[in-house]
Amino acid sequence: MRKEKISFKETGNFSKKFLDFVSGDSDSYFPSEKNILSVLENLNFSLEDRARLCDDLKSQYKGIEVSESVNKNLELLKSENTYTITTGHQLNIFTGPMYVIYKIVSAIKLAANLSKKYPENNFIPVYWMASEDHDFEEIQSFHTRGETYKWDIESKGPVGNLKLESIKSILEEDIDIPDFFMEAYQNSKSLSEAVRKYMNSLFGKFGLIIIDPNSKNLKSSITDIIEDDIINNSIEKIEKSSDSSSEVYVRKINFFFQKSDFRERIEKSDTYNILSSELSFTEEEIKNKIQLSPESFSPNVITRCLYQQRILPNICYVGGPAEIIYWTSFKKFFSHYKVPYPVLVPRDFILLLTTKAQKKIEKLKLSTADLFLDKDKIENKVMSVHTDDSKNFSREIKEVQKILEGLSEKFGIEDSTMKPHVLATAKNIEKRLLQIQRRYINKQKENSKFLIDKVGSLFNFINPGNSIQERRENIISFYDSELIDNLFQNLDPLDLNFKILKK
């Protein structure tokens, strides 16, 4: 693959908050090697916590064939000089959009780069499966090659517990589904198990550790946070007393109560009530429940971040723009609970160009920057390049501007009141010339349907469903045996630019 880069700002796809984040390096959580080493030096993760983590992970991998790299990394987690680079996401079917793949490869590449540069330490990539999430609508479909495929099933509880019988209808569709998906879905009992299997197939050789946080053993590490939030509402109190508000809504209670088939909010009145159920607990009862059955309590987005950093020797979190921004607003909660705060690393952002797409770009004489323009602007650019330049009035406009600017200066010497009138006239002339130019180009568009169709086809490839490619298109659209290796070679999340990869 060949690689080109463009700044995040030039793409027009990112919020001001995210652009401000990547442009400023004053904060301790900014993505730099200096900050990463600083977090590493100050991290204190006990051997007891490491043993608990390793035991639970080995239990999670039971019955799954793993690579030598994964086995090695599971053992290395017991060592005091081992640290994790973590990313996470919902359990999208068939991986979901391409950016999920880019998140994971970014974490893998960062861990590999740090391991190579600082061999006295071990850096292990971790994928956090958001198996407890219950927002099934967000994950139940995927898009590939112009078609959307939907998993037709109802879900109310943690998505990781979903049974897979009904997903087999998608497997029978006329899609070129890679074998690792077929194997995972046909030989797994739950969505969590299937996701672990196909992610292990894709990334196991890189030593990726896959963790399912829905674990009694692991949640026993945060019973203090669970109880403090539910009984004392400390997170809400911190939020209300803070000078800055969080990027997500902070509730009075920031844990859900869950069973295998439901996940519901907890509300406090005289007792602790589980919404949409008849379950209710006294304060003493819910305290006992927290201690004896911590797996019954599921974190929301705020407490999930705290949970992650409590149970992993984690120094970096690799995330998308929205994740990075809400993490920055949670720092006050980490300080309160004395939980180590990671360096925040934006994942790699990719536009993947096939050979066919590249040929279209060359024929249309478009630059890399042009690919991020609105469709109308791309059409205008193509038309201006491929049509009669004599009707492009940019030269005439500049000449008129020059003449009228000269006149305004002359008038300014003799009569200063005339200068603004002359400049206003210049503006009106420019406006009229641009109108004439626009009418001409629109007429040429009508007469150049072939070119416009090519632009439309290219634009739809880059922006399928009017969304940028990585947020819409699935790995099936691009998969071959070399894809993951090529991504690994070309990605680098500490290089804070948007990448264009050409196959």
Helix content: 40-55%
Shape: globular
CATH topology group of the largest domain: Rossmann fold
Architecture (CATH level 2) name of the largest domain: 3-Layer(aba) Sandwich
How many beta-strand runs? Answer: 15
Strand order within the widest beta sheet: 6-3-2-12-13
Compute the number of structural domains: 3
Describe the structure.
- The structure is a single chain.
- The protein is of the alpha/beta class and 503 residues long.
- It has three domains: 2-219 and 301-351, 3-Layer(aba) Sandwich (Rossmann fold); 222-296, no CATH class; 355-468, no CATH class.
- The protein contains 23 helices and 15 strands.
- The protein has helices at residues 8-11, 16-23, 33-42, 47-60, 68-76, 98-117, 168-171, 179-186, 191-203, 216-219, 223-232, 234-241, 283-292, 301-311, 321-328, 331-337, 355-364, 375-386, 394-414, 419-447, 449-462, 469-472, 483-490, and strands spanning 2-6, 82-90, 122-130, 141-144, 147-150, 209-211, 255-259, 262-268, 272-274, 280-281, 297-299, 314-319, 343-346, 350-353, 498-502.
- The strands form four sheets. A five-stranded parallel sheet has the order 6-3-2-12-13, sandwiched between helices.
- Strand 7 (255-259) and strand 8 form a beta hairpin.
- Helix 6 packs across helix 23 (483-490).
- It starts with a strand and ends with a strand.
- The mean pLDDT is 93.
Core attributes:
single chain, 503 residues, alpha/beta, Rossmann fold, 3 domains, five-stranded parallel β-sheet, five-stranded antiparallel β-sheet, 15 strands
